[in-house]
Every structure is written in structure tokens, then in C-alpha cells.
Amino acid sequence: MKIGLYFGTFNPIHVGHLIIANHLAEHSDLNQVWFVVTPHSPFKKKNTLLQDNHRYQMADRATEYYPKLRASDIEFKLQQPNYTINTLTYLEEKYPDFEFCLIMGKDNLNSFHKWKNYELILERYEIYVYPRISKGNTVTKFEEHKKMHFINAPIMELSSTFIRKAIKEGKDVRPLLPENVWQYLDEMNFYK
Does 189 score more than 70 pLDDT? Predict the structure, then answer.
């Protein structure tokens, strides 16, 4: 089975994440897409995140009705801060019959060379890149790499940051979130 790993803090997960993941699950050779909820990204300040279990709960609820999508808390079990190469190695050991691939937005290619052991990732794993509208030039040395697959997915310019800010301002963001995720956020009074 070929699994696409979609890493993120998902703070909160929203319909843009689901649209991209479902597109990849339905229109590529990936059998499933796992939302790998990151407890602490080396590039983000931890104090801006909801607790790990809440973000995982939202991702789990968001994927509830999609058989090819699932939430994963695998990184919660790994030493923090964690790096993608460590997660990939751990998953290969835990699921030796699965083939794992990465999913990332095209804008992430600009900083991919800063990832720990990025050369090893490129050597050992396929990377599925979805389009993003970004400021500046995203042409990188990785665009011609044989392990890079550029997917013609819908362009989603919805961000968790925008959603958090809108909730804080009292805006109605229900159309931007799966209904059960909105209910969880509302019940827990998050981001207000």
C-alpha cells in the first residue's frame, strides 16, 4: 500500500487540507493519505498551538467520513522537536509492507534544502507537490528531480492562521471547516 504523508500542525484542520488530501487520494497512485499531526515543528513557536490531543481530535473528526484519509498521531510518540526523516524511518520500521511518500505545497520547496537530511529524503522517498500561490519565485533545483511529482490539484489559499484570526474577531467561519471540527472548536471555545 502506498501512503502519502501530509504533515502539519493542523491548527485547525480545514476544508482546504481535506480538498488537497482527497484529491491526491482519488487522482494519484496513492492508496491513502495520512494527516500526520505535528506536535512541534522546528519552524514554529509551540505557544501558538492548541494542545496536541485537541489538534489530533480535530483531524480525526475531519477524516471520519473519508475512507482513504486518516489522522495520525505517530509523531507524538517520537522525541521532540522531531524531524521528517525520523518519522519516515520510524514508519518504515513499524509498517514494513507500506511505501511512504511525502506531500508538500510547492512553496515548501524554497526551504526544503534546510530540512534535516533532505538529501536522504530525496534519495529514498517520492514527494508529491501540490500547487500554491506564493509571493516570490518558487523555482528551485528540486523541480526537475525524478522523485518530485507535481500534482495538478486545486489551489487552496485558505490558511489556519486566517481561520484563527477570524474566530477571534467573532466571524462565522463554519463553511471553512468540516462541520464536526467546527462543533469541536465551538464546544471547546478555542481561538476566541
Answer: yes
Torsion 110-15-72-125 (CA) sign = negative
Classified by CATH at the fold level, domain 2-188 comes out as Rossmann fold (3.40.50)
Task: Compute the distance between CA of residue 109 and CA of residue 103 in angstroms, rounded to an integer.
Answer: 11
Task: Tell me the one-letter amino acid at 111.
Answer: S
What is the DSSP secondary structure assignment for residue 14, as one 8-state letter?
Answer: -
**Cα distance between residue 149 and residue 1, in whole Å:** 18
Residue 40: its pLDDT value, please? 66
pLDDT band at residue 179 using 50, 70 and 90 as cut-offs: very high
End-to-end Cα spacing for the chain: 41
Q: What is the pLDDT of residues 47-72, one digit of tens each?
A: 668 999 999 999 999 999 999 999 99
Q: Is 113 left (phi over 0), alpha (psi -120 to 50) or beta?
A: alpha
